[in-house]
Amino acid sequence: MVRLVVMTDTTIAVLVGSLRTDSVNRKLAELLAEQAPEGVTVDIVDGLGAIPFYNEDIDNPRDVPASAAALRERVGAADRVLAVTPEYNGTMPAVLNNAIDWLSRPYGAGALVGKPFGVVGATPTPYGGKWAHEDAARSARIAGATVVEDVTVSQSAIEVDVLTDPDVLDRLNRAVRTLAEYEPATVAA
Ligand SMILES: Cc1cc2nc3c(=O)[nH]c(=O)nc-3n(C[C@H](O)[C@H](O)[C@H](O)COP(=O)(O)O)c2cc1C
C-alpha cells in the first residue's frame, strides 16, 4: 500500500537520457522544471556526457572523476530522482545507463539507495520508449532505488507535438507530482 502526502521543499534530480542539442526529452525536462508544483524543485543534472564510462579502477576515494563525484553529490542531495529519456536500440541510452552505474556504487550505499525513482520520456514510435523505461526502472531498482511505477509515462510522439499538447503535458506534470508526493508505506509498530 502507498500513502500520498503533500510535500513541501522536495527536490527531484532529473537525469536526461539524450545529449542532443535539440533533444525533445531535454525540452520536456525543462518544461517540467518550469511547471513544477509549488514546493517542488526539478533540478536537471547537467554534464552527464562528460562522465567517463564506469570503471572500478577509477572508482575510489583517491581519484574518482570530479564529474562522477558531482553527480553523486547532486543526486544524493535530492529527495527523488526522475529519468527523462528516449530509447536507443530497445533500451536506455548509454549516457543514462552510465549515470545509474556511477550512482549504484559504493555497493549498498550509492546515491540511489532508498530514493524514490521514476521514469518518463517520449520517442517517435508507437511504444514511446517503453523498453528503455522498463530497463531504466529495473536498473535503478537493482541500484537500490524505490521505483514508483505509477510515475511511468512512455509517450509516443508520432501523432502529437509532445512539447505543446496539453494532455501530454498534463500527464507528465502529474507524473512529477506523483513522484514528489510518494511516500513509502510505513509499517505500524
Ligand atoms: C541510436 C538510436 C537508436 C534509437 N533506437 C530507438 C528505439 O529502440 N526505440 C525508439 O522508440 N526510438 C529509437 N530511436 C529514436 C529516438 O527515440 C529519437 O531519435 C528521439 O527523438 C531521441 O530523443 P531526443 O529527441 O530526446 O534526443 C533511436 C535513435 C537513435 C539515435
Automatic annotation (TrEMBL):
SUPFAM superfamilies with a match to the protein in the record: Flavoproteins
Domain NADPH-dependent FMN reductase-like span(s) in chain numbering: 11-154
Signal peptide feature range: none
Pfam families, per database record: FMN_red (PF03358)
Name of this protein: NAD(P)H-dependent oxidoreductase
Lineage: Bacteria, Bacillati, Actinomycetota, Actinomycetes, Propionibacteriales
